[in-house]
């Protein structure tokens, strides 16, 4: 409980920092974009041709960069939760089918992907694009844990968290009906010391430049904000299973596509 509290505090602090910076940065970007547009209009009245061409190229490059920066701040804002989650009723098996191609290409040729759906699966109440982001993060971790190949299994199911189980959790969720998604790899696994720290923001065992240490803390933050629960089982040299429990939605899943973001660029 002590560790969970420390981790929640750290996450909160990071959220505040990223949210604050992203917010101010975004204001600056608005100024920059406005300036670029004015320059663009002025350029139209420049008469020297070679200079005009150069300036227009520079203007368009800067505009492009500013747009990309705006996308980045949107991600930061989403991460810090200045932007609220947008939960809906999701058909999780369908979401996984829609993600299949993306997952296969993320995992590469050495890793076999197996998705085990559940015919009577309840619908989930969560933010679809955040859930997709979380599953991708977990798939990337699994890939990194299987440098020589292996198998990634994603299995869904209906579950009931009972009072005893809920009471044993460091941060209790209400007892009741949940949809479980279990993501298992046959990779290198984790020792106890690593396992104890995985949800800590910036904790990573990967070499510099490869890991940010934010993947699992993001997953954790998303699941907790969705009133769900996440648990990791791992054994060195055998593999890892991440179990995510998300609350059952009482409504039918929305008919439209579950995915709403192209996500290869959204990783970490
Ligand atoms: P990152 O992947 O950037 O290191 P994460 O928060 O996603 O950040 O993961 C933190 C650490 O947890 C990883 O560096 C790794 O040591 C461990 N880890 C996460 N997922 C797995 C996995 N599937 N198998 C083995 N170790 C894992």
TrEMBL record:
Residues 20-250 form the Histidine kinase domain. Keywords: Coiled coil, Phosphoprotein. It comes from the Bacteria. This is histidine kinase. It comes from Bradyrhizobium vignae. The chain holds residues 190 to 457 of 579 of the full protein.
């Amino acid at each position: 409980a002590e560790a969970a509290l420390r981790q929640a505090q750290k996450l909160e602090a990071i959220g505040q920092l990223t949210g604050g910076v992203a917010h101010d940065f975004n204001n600056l970007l608005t100024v920059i974009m406005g300036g670029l547009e004015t320059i663009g209009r002025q350029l139209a009245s420049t008469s020297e041709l070679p200079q005009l061409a150069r300036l227009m190229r520079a203007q368009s490059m800067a505009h492009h960069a500013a747009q990309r920066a705006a996308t980045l701040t949107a991600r930061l804002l989403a991460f810090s939760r200045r932007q609220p989650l947008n939960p809906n009723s999701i058909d999780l098996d369908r979401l996984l089918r829609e993600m299949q191609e993306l997952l296969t290409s993320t995992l590469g040729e050495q890793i076999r992907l197996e998705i085990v759906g559940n015919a009577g699966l309840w619908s989930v109440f969560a933010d679809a694009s955040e859930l997709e982001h979380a599953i991708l993060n977990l798939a990337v971790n699994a890939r990194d844990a299987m440098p020589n190949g292996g198998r990634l299994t994603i299995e869904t199911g209906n579950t009931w968290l009972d009072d005893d189980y809920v009471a044993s959790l460091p941060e209790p969720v209400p007892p009741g009906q949940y949809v479980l998604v279990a993501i298992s790899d046959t990779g290198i696994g984790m020792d106890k010391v690593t396992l104890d720290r995985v949800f800590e923001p910036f904790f990573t065992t990967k070499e510099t430049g490869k890991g940010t240490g934010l993947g699992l803390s993001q997953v954790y933050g998303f699941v907790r904000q969705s009133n769900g629960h996440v648990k990791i089982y791992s054994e060195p040299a055998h593999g890892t299973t991440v179990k995510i429990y998300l609350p059952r939605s009482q409504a039918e899943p929305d008919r439209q596509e579950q995915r709403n973001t192209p996500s290869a660029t959204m990783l970490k």
